């Protein structure tokens, strides 16, 4: 099977990364790691799609904007969403189909909401997913620290499969743009 990769950057918006209630866990490393992945994608001419959550803040506000540390180029696609699932009510699936993508590298915020839901949904839509272990983040909740939430999701999502497609969790330094799913089929 010929693999076509796309990079999906979920909700890395100023109002999430630098929220007044507290920055996401390890925000500087998160942005550095995402930048490294973006650079690799650009070198390999891999399509980059940014997802913005319309519920974060008014669209004209600074908080709504994609974090300037990872700002998109004009050639990058931007998808607006209102649900935790980046596919629900958006044209994301159609955009990915149009470019022939069947492997998604996923990074972003927040781990237990939009990242988790989009990873799971992607597999049911026919995509293999590489979740980058050190390029998604969240904040503490009433029960768990952000680092625990991230580690929990990295452990639980690794190997999660739906029919023929599944999620592999890899670190930034693992050449995440190169799909390895077929090694496990």
Automatic annotation (TrEMBL):
Task: Give the record's keywords alphabetically.
Answer: Hydrolase
Per its UniProt entry, which superkingdom is the organism in? Bacteria
What would you give as a GO molecular function for this chain, any one? hydrolase activity
Q: Which InterPro entries match?
A: Isochorismatase-like_dom (IPR000868), Isochorismatase-like_hydrls (IPR050272), Isochorismatase-like_sf (IPR036380)
Give the EC class as a word: hydrolase
Q: Any keyword Transmembrane helix?
A: no
**What's the EC number here?**
3.5.1.110
Under the heading CDD domains, the entry gives:
nicotinamidase_related
Q: Which residues form the Isochorismatase-like domain?
A: 5-140
Spell out the family assignment given in the record's similarity comment.
Belongs to the isochorismatase family.
Q: What is this protein called?
A: Peroxyureidoacrylate/ureidoacrylate amidohydrolase RutB
- List the source organism: Pseudoneobacillus rhizosphaerae
The top of its lineage is:
Bacteria, Bacillati, Bacillota, Bacilli, Bacillales
What gene is behind this protein?
Answer: rutB_2
